[in-house]
Write a structure and sequence with these properties.
By secondary structure, this protein is an alpha+beta fold. It has 13 helices and 12 strands. The C terminus is likely disordered.
Length: about 350
Amino acid sequence: MHVDLDAFFASVEEREHPECKGKPVIVGADPKDGKGRGVVSTCNYEARKFGVHSAMPISIAWDLCKDAVFLPVNYKLYEEVSTKIMKILKSHTTKFEQAGIDEAFLDVTCKTKGITEVKKLAEKIKEEILKKEKLTCSIGVGPNKLVAKIASDYNKPNGLTIVEERNVKQFLAPLEVDKLWGIGKKTKRKMDEMGIRTINELSNFERGKLIEEFGIFGHEFYQMAHGIDNSEVIEYRRRKSYSREHTFKVDTINEQVINNLVNNIYEEVMHDVEEGGFNFRTLTIKVRYENFKTHTRSKTFSHPVGRSKYTKEATHKLLKSFLQPNRAIRLIGVRASNLVLMKKQKTLV
């Protein structure tokens, strides 16, 4: 099973603000009368009718839907609600994997016998979440995680789609290739040039040519197009932070050397964060001077962030406060903490 909460942030806000019910709701940066520089975090289905979507510049969202209710991100509240819902999901299985703040996989093989029981369990989960948290979710059921994930998105919102093993190829065949994990805009464009638009066309394409074009991913794309996914449902331990630090061989006051090192450490930490499937909310710089005195300075963002020009600039801004004439630095460290589990699957852009 793949359980996906419908328009999660916006739905929580609608629950907290009943007066927003039925109106377009956009959660994200302050639009500032169309001059805001941030982005849309998420929006409800009413706002999506106007073409608004997540990651869209807030200024464009304003132009598309000025009558929407614009609300700031309240991540603390969303995490609290997510924790309660994940607890509900865990109670229905012994094999559980949280795949994001608003989604999770459940292996219910040992809990159910046959499609009828699976359907009853899925409906029970939906009813429990609605009763306890006043939120809807969409559930996809399939023989593996790949099919379940695609199925949960098939009939949103508040949907339930069950795909039996014998019907997998028939279910996948007409869907566009970017429904598969790992196929982003550039890969989709390339496949389009190759005459591959649907999963059925991908499944019938010569595997060798796919590997020639996309390397090891070509084999994975071919496997997925046939509905093959052997990954297990695994509960991961949540990390608290990722950090790297470096000690200079010789203490230095050279700002260029210091800045270059911070760039390298920043990239290493961002790589670790991305590999772990996280974003973060707190960024910390650690500096140890030649006299061994150690200081830290942190910035906490209003919403989860990742590698970007914005977070890199924040890193250097934190560092700048430590750069002092005639005070040599011995060690520098960068830490990303207050982690938020995001989508786990890697995507070729």
